[in-house]
Amino acid sequence: YKAELKTLVDAESVSTDGKKTLLVANIGSPNDLEAVKANGAEGVGLFRTEFLYMENDDLPTEEQQFEVYKEVLENVNGPVVVRTLDIGGDKKLPALPLPEEMNPFLGVRAIRLCLQRKDIFRVQLRALLRASVYGELHIMFPMIATLGEFREAKGVLMEEKEKLIAEGVKVADKIEVGIMIEIPAAAVLADQFAKEVDFFSIGTNDLIQYTFAADRMSSTINYLYQPFNPAIIRLVKNVIEASHKEGKWTGMCGEMAGEAKAAPLLLGLGLDEFSMSATSILAQRKRIRGLSYEECKTLANKCADECATMEEVVDLVSESTGL
Ligand code: PEP
Ligand code: MG
């Protein structure tokens, strides 16, 4: 089976009836680049940049960050989606003690922190903009709940871009700017967001946590981690449809994107890009290459429109596809 998967390293991620998708990797540092190549990733769908901030006692400098982003962009053939700092919640930052909060996952994390500490945010954005000429950079903001947050974050990005250009620094003309969809408010209002962003990437790890109001770290209520609950399928469907109506694209970078039973559902809903740990890519590519998009579309819509429970969705997918 492993040898068979290896033959798919250079294969397209395409359904039996010709629907093309992109299978890309989640990475946490340049150490993961080797696995990206070895597993035939068509790009990077999520570069989590937290390691830069968590490894040291000091905040990373613009220069340190620039070198890392440049290395990643130079070594990936295809788009690279870099997510700006997503610290807070479970992830602590040694160089910046956060306020003690009753519910850290509902508190100052990710873009909320960056908008409060624009000094830190600007350093990362400058490093990214400077690195943009070395590859196909996309910039993604995490934990966006409102359009106001997106506009403010993008405004800061544009300010830094203009400053760099005024300083005579080269910046790529075309950098796509998108958001993670991981807060239900943004998933519900995706049609409005789609007018202003270049792309969405659905972060199911948090989207499920916030939709079911169930801490993703808790083992006592982990039955509420339900990627196949129709509530989640409907949110995902809404986001993909909203993006396509505006000519934009949607990816998924949460764990769900690599799950076997999710392949037919997400293909059927029209997901454009699946991002997962590199080691899951070849198996997911093999599944997609064995599926008919038209059949999956019927299946996915049935799951979204007619199923009441996660179990019904899982059974329907199993019966229809054998997965
Ligand atoms: C997610 O929430 O699904 C996601 C990809 O981000 P993280 O797991 O880093 O919160
Ligand atoms: Mg998340």
TrEMBL record:
The chain holds residues 249 to 571 of 571 of the full protein. This is Phosphoenolpyruvate-protein phosphotransferase. Its EC number is 2.7.3.9. GO terms for cellular component: cytoplasm. The keyword Calcium does not apply. Belongs to the PEP-utilizing enzyme family. Its cofactor is Mg(2+). Phosphoenolpyruvate binds at R48, R83, N205, D206, R216. It comes from the Bacteria. Its main location: cytoplasm. It catalyses: L-histidyl-[protein] + phosphoenolpyruvate = N(pros)-phospho-L-histidyl-[protein] + pyruvate. Keywords: Cytoplasm, Kinase, Magnesium, Metal-binding, Phosphotransferase system, Pyruvate, Sugar transport, Transferase, Transport. GO terms for molecular function: kinase activity; metal ion binding; phosphoenolpyruvate-protein phosphotransferase activity. Mg(2+) binds at E182, D206. The keyword Signal does not apply. The active site is at C253 (proton donor). It comes from Kandleria vitulina DSM 20405.
